[in-house]
Records
---
Amino acid sequence: MSVTQLPRPRKLETVGNQVLEHIRDAILSGRLIAGTRIDQNALAAELGVSIIPVRESLRQLEAEGLIEKRPYRGAFVAAPSMTELMDIYVTREALEELATRLAVALMTSETLDSLQGLIHEMESATAASDRVALFDLNATFHFTLYTASKNAILCQLIESLWDRSTVYRRRFTFMPERAAQALAEHQEILAACRRGDAEAAGRAVRKNVAQTTKAIADDHDRPSPETSE
């Protein structure tokens, strides 16, 4: 289950919400890639709706950072700049550490059991090199933990940042050499939660997020094959 598949606040199922979720899912799943121009008329015809809910949805997605409007050219799927992407991850580190510290103080045996079950699934997926499953399990693990904080605003902020970096998380989080390390980091997080050590759990989550931040920076600084000797 990816972050975009996790339960969002319940909404009235209007045509506008259906259109919004359709476009958002197309972006976050990679069906609409960064830089793609959104043909509003074609999209409205495809969905069998008027142009109005499409325009309203694009305004909402622009506010979320998933769409960018270009003067005289229309709406395009946004591609975060490297500066913006690094800002997202640095902010994630701080917010997710805070959510974890709050969650540990309210941790229940049911949540601990859920996290342990997800660790077992991660172990199997890591052994099978199932990157798709690992991507989904990672999101489920983290949001199971953060939801335990009982802080809906904080979880919504974190979810928004995850949405804005989904494409990049798919690329960097589960590189072949990264999977075993990521599993060990999640085991460390759970161990600290079981001890009731909020400080250690928070540090472990920050470390886990920071590894992706580092991978993005390293990849950006790596010479391309065309320029390297």
Note: The beta strands are 37-38, 67-70, 74-77.
---
Amino acid sequence: MNQKIFTRDFILAFLAQFFFLFVFYLLLPTLPIFLSRSGSTEKEIGILIGIYFLSAFILKPFIGRALSRIQEKTFMMAGALTFAFTSVAYLFSPPFWPFFITRLLQGIGFAFFHTASYTLATEISPKNQLGQSVSYFYLGFNLSGALAPPLGIFLVNQFGFTILFMVCSGLSLGSLFITFLLADRQDSQPQVSSTKDNPFLSREALLPSTVNLIALFLWGALTAFFPLHAIHHGVTNPGLFFTTIAIMLILGRSLGGRILDRYDRERIILPCLTTYILSMTLLAFSKTLPMFILTAVIWGMGHALLGPTLVVYAIDRSSSSRGSVIGTFMAMSDLGISLGPVISGFILNVTSYSTMFLCLALTGLINLNFFYFFVRKGDRLKGRDDKI
């Protein structure tokens, strides 16, 4: 019998996450502009933007482990409060080192909130509808990612950076307030002694996390280099490609979330991984906007369901605490997004866009085989059942 997904706490957690991620996406396109106008070099901008993700990547496994004995609500409030403080601090942190420290602290706040919020979502969701619940929760990323960046640019152009940073601080405080309304979950805390046996990285979650890492490696490369590829072929607004992907993600995760709990996880993961190969192969030979849009539709169909399914798949196969699983999964995700542009940039430097996209298609094929022969077959040999 299906239980209620949209409980009071699930809705509050979703709204708190939405407000929090809205700040993240407001700053994503605007901070490089702020730093450039402040006189930072391209190298300095790269360091100051990148330290955020590096600090989040390093901390997430530690936070996941700590969640076995500390409430998710506590870390979420700490993350939101840190975001509120650092958003205002940008106004008083001239580059390089003051801004570096502020950016580092904000990355820590992101690690706190992001890891804890997803752990909470999995803890309060019905076990037999976990895939559907996680899929819905992922929508916070997609909705904020679609709405916030253009609003951030508008605020900068119309009112300046002071207003932007004040809005970010206000939204962070809004997330803090909503998080405060969450019910305490004292009964859900395991024994402190069990934490000693809980690893920083969940070994059982590493393989599905690696599948997601490779998928997000492709995504990181795509976001970095597709706009240049499209402009080279005369497309004046490459943003339409990403708008199409955003629409597919929202539709896929809102309408398709139900299938995640009706079929074996592998029956969903395998077709999703195939869409990465198809879309990157197609993109290597595409030169017109309609072909780019078709590629975005194929990519979005697979990407919409892969992430939520792999999260639940990692939870299914792991005996570690969910905090440790989520911390491992999210840290590996950050690593994949970070490596994608770097390695693909080296490939592009010695080849061409078409060759680079074919290399990404090959990477997708390697990922498909890795899942089929190592992750899936390994589970079969150990007698695991992919479905709850």
Note: Residues 189-195 have pLDDT under 50 and may be disordered.
---
Amino acid sequence: MEESTGRAAQIPDPEVAKALDAAYTCGSEIPGMMEGTGIGRQYADDYLKTLTDIIGRPFTGLRVLEIGCGTGYLLQRLQQEGADVLGIEPGCQSGQEDSGVRIVRGFFPSVEVKGEFDLIIMHSVLEHLPDPTDFLRTVLRQLTPEGILCLAVPDESGFLQRGDVSMLFTEHYSYFSPDSLYRTIAKAGGGDIRVKCSTFSALLYASCTRAAAGDDEIRSPGMEADLRLVTEYRRKVNEFTEKFQYYLEAVRTGGLELGIYAAGRAVNALVMSGVSMARLRFFDDAEMMHGTYFPSISVAVEDREDFIKNPPDEVLIMSVSFGARIEAALRPLVPARVRFQQLEELCK
């Protein structure tokens, strides 16, 4: 826990950092963010609307940099709006060559990214950095005097409150709440800071300008609440894991087969609880995950077609943001005997 900002943080490990750098350079990606189809298109539409509201003027003529641009899809949309765009991404990802935008291969900062920008964008980047404050200082230096930095990070406040271990991704160093994100930006020298929760998913959208806040310790009325939230998290993790274990064992005791949808969110709890993988099935809508395995777990990931052809007796949906939508889409496709369980209900 970073006491100056209330930011919940994973302690950096050199071996993990080395592995992550290699993965990013190879173009490792989590599907779904900022793509031209499916859920990625919905993420992009929502963020583009937010950017439009923040900028408050047409994008025509603006010099725009996106750090961690992935396939370049969002930049392609901004370029169509008349912006002069540049992206930087450490690894080559499918779709980049077709985006029609210039993408620098590498990590920011880079000698190939020169000058100042009217708008700098970072979506799902800041949580991957061991020192987000220092990184933001570097980013802010490349804003024009009137420039705006816009960023998006996962909103982990709900996960912290529930003691939900599914938020603990190896590649995430920081677990932000709205207040801790605000204080992190302020500590880095951001001014006119605005943080809001996305209405589409569990994301925080923030914007700021360049200011002279310096390195002064930032405290706000929400600091004590954040400190309590982080302090209580470990106890709540134990409670959550016990409930999760009890639920799985109760389903299996009844002789039922359990399917876990958005299964990546269940892996931490499964490993920590030490439960048997018998009569468990994993499902995910991400095409690239079909037929793959999570480390140390010998259960292959199935897709929606598999689910429809051979549905399990009960389904646990591990997504809080999209759980209700997933259930609404799946229910009409399977027999009425199939029972659905939402993660939020399990946490009560």
Note: The longest strand covers residues 143-154.
